[in-house]
């Protein structure tokens, strides 16, 4: 405490520590924490937070954290509360019991709650520093609280916070699920103290201080031996010796062991003899309630009058069993006493009193969340409909505060009641859904049971939803073929619900689209096209099919205009329509992700970034911090990479990878993030680092067993081998990739640029074959029709040509890429063109293109490309110019060109109207497309200009239309 306060007074902020006390029960941990608490409260300005785990409350979610944080957060005024909570109020508030979840709120992801608590504490700690957080009996902390405390212990070092934990060292005292947290806490402690038993000298001093110096050595030795040096047992036994007026002499030593049995291992008879029936029943009620016991509530549970309860409390305090808390409630002097009393309850009495406790807690207005831990302890088998309804409602409330495990306990108990046959399948469905975010295997098992006719009827709408949820979990686990199969089979049996049938058919198409391999890809695409053509409305299901068709056409490399026609019909004024949102429970996040990917690969990157930016925000607000937010980070990283903002892309991709690793090993999300990260590192010129990342993760054939990697993994791996100079290996990998993609009818040269890179790999040894692949890549790109696809294919074709032919190809590539948002690809083409011009002797033109390439490469953070361009300039004695940072906003000349382009005015007429050279117009248009993140067809939307906007001389862009993407 002295160190914390001294360093904080000196201006220190990153001064946090974790102090732990561990040892056997009764060894003195609680006494030491009381001393820490007393010392801390004496420090001016220190904020002291205290909580205690409870053996009976270890299954009550956030029990410890609510004790710890409710007092301080509840004392904040409205303004400071909003500042501390930030955007996490709707996540942390309900979990900490500070507010009710909003009507229609969605289930919270436990990791999202933990992330929200991290944010709240990083805001709170500096405002209430120095902050001391004390937790006693950590081994009995609920898992929700324990998981966060173990995670926060790492962050605490960055804050002015002292954490003090006390716990039992023996693993048997911890819940089995808590093992990893126990190890983490022990490893993170900067000061660890494992308490030892008292020595013979210490116990002798205690005995003589209590019984007088006449206590004989032999008596003191036997006393020490009986209590085994345990302070709690020593004090309790001393009380018994004093009450029995036992002389501390050698001949009475044998009676110590008998007294210790009564004190330490108190039996039902022992407690009855000591307290009497009425007081013991009150003590039982207290033991059931755990910590911070309300006297009136305990009295009602044991059906005792107010006067009788007062007498019971007096006796229990006199016997040093209960004590009063600073808040006026009661607690056991030591948790060992509470455990001893609870364990003497006959089973029938215990289950009956738990039922009474559940009812009385609910009647007292404490809610189903508090009552549910007692409900799950009641004896099943009555078939009580009311109990089943309460447990189902409690499960829903647990999900709303991010406690799915508690929800599952309630639903398992509801199934044991048992529920009526006509709702049993619904309870199984709810049980399956409760584990969606945390336990995929349990979700699959429960949803399969819910769909089994032998378990009872399931309403048609719930059958559809249960099937979709089952397919969702199967797909996320990599079983995409199985996911598609269950949807298709259920769709064939869904005859009376057209909307539900369409939903399942669309889901089957979606899972097939993300499979690594498929037997009838072209036939499936034709069936999807027929389904799309049959649509007549614009309901959510119709729009979902349109989104899937847009992605299917993208992968097939069909004309981009057709893709965008379908994609634009999905949106409502540029945003996702109701029913297809990122956190919508009907379709899941895959549907809007699929739409965003279509825009990403069709040069409408600004639109994609708006969608992906919305995803990140919505997942954060909903408290979904696992795979959902990780996938949103990946999507934004992919969009940034396509735009050419490589440093930002790398940041988003690494965030996605960290989240993936936190969830589990080598999930589909991790494969996606690693693939694009490798591509990004290659673009930045860090090829060796890219190779290390790929090798460390195992990013090589056969990749993920069943799931398709975004973008095509085999093409990326071939590209990596080519960057490493391993042309033979690259040629083999790319040839294999091409064969698989061609079999599926996928010809998109941006999604899978295998043909162009294969041409480069073959150029030296098989020039004719290389030319064939290069020409195929250009033909496929022209069919697709986006500027970035055509420009990139032409650039790769130029790599296998020489002289004037290479120059002409690169000039065409620069023209196309200048009309696309693909900044990095444009920069590569500019540098390549400059180098080709130098080789044919056009030095002045070469210099201009190399300077443009350097400027754009610096903007993209493509350091390797900058070095290569400067080397080209140095080859003929020119010094590379020094460049400042490229401005993100459009200059006024660029706005003049952009307005005319939006109105459809061609580049030669723009040059005439503005009185500038055509090449300058093209350069300005290229900057506009790059900064706006869109090609010509999406430019108006990206800049916030209507297509028929009339420009006015000197007019400035409207607010919010500064040429930058919303993402």
TrEMBL record:
The record's listing under SUPFAM superfamilies reads:
C-terminal effector domain of the bipartite response regulators, P-loop containing nucleoside triphosphate hydrolases, TPR-like
Give one Pfam family, short name only: AAA_16
Sequence segments annotated as region (Disordered): 933-967
Native source species: Kitasatospora aburaviensis
* Single annotated GO MF: ATP binding
Q: Which UniProt keywords apply?
A: ATP-binding, Nucleotide-binding
Domain Orc1-like AAA ATPase span(s) in chain numbering: 11-164
Query: Which SMART domains does the record associate with it?
Result: TPR
Write down what this protein is called. Answer: ATP-binding protein
Q: Which InterPro entries match?
A: AAA_16, P-loop_NTPase, Sig_transdc_resp-reg_C-effctor, TPR-like_helical_dom_sf, TPR_rpt, WH-like_DNA-bd_sf
Q: Which PANTHER family match?
A: TESTICULAR SOLUBLE ADENYLYL CYCLASE, TRANSCRIPTIONAL ACTIVATOR DOMAIN
